[in-house]
Amino acid sequence: MIDNQQQALLKQEGNCGIIMGALIVLTGILMAMTPVLTVISLTALIAAVLLVVGICTLVDVFRRTGMERRMLDGLLGVFFIVLALLIFFNPAGSAVGLTIWVAAGFIVRGVMELAGMGASPYGRSFMALDAIVNIVLGVTLFCINPITAQAALGYYVAISLMFWGFSLIHRSVLLRHLG
User: Fold this and answer.
1) How many CB atoms lie within 10 A of CB 36?
2) Which label site among 23, 67, 71, 175 has the fewest CB atoms less than 10 Å from its CB?
3) 179 to 5, 14, 39, 68, 134: CA distances (angstroms)
4) How far apart are alpha carbons 130 and 56 in whole angstroms?
């Protein structure tokens, strides 16, 4: 049985997750609509999104009372912030290695999602799908021709963001209905 305080927290987490998920999906849609962005502009946009998501993830980790997924999400938040700062401070150099960085980010996020699925009883199916999609996108980026990878990068990031956003929205709606 869930008490009133837990219900309020679940609703609040559900609302925040829905907003964050919608922003992530919107970013993915915008990136899919404008795949001809220059690589340096794309790096700045990705760095900004990673920084915001990393900060939101860390805020969410410190806001939780239980230990479920705190360590994994905390590491993921720090990883996103460090990656964002590396990109911000060297955008021209980052453009060269952008494909490798994004591929590594996809794989790390996918593995972290799979590792943390057991701690979250809500929305596991979408979490698993999101994790698998990100691992496949990351491995594909590592394996294809670098020129093709650069051309496909905007679409791959858009796909990843949309799956992540929908996964977050699905989980948040489930949490909100519990509250």
Assistant:
1) 8
2) 67
3) 9, 9, 43, 18, 30
4) 19
